Amino acid sequence: MAQLRVFDKDEVHELLDYETLIQRLRDGFREPLTVPLRHHHHLPHSGNQGSLILMPCWDLEGFGVKLLFR
Question: Domain spans of the chain?
Answer without folding.
Answer: 9-69
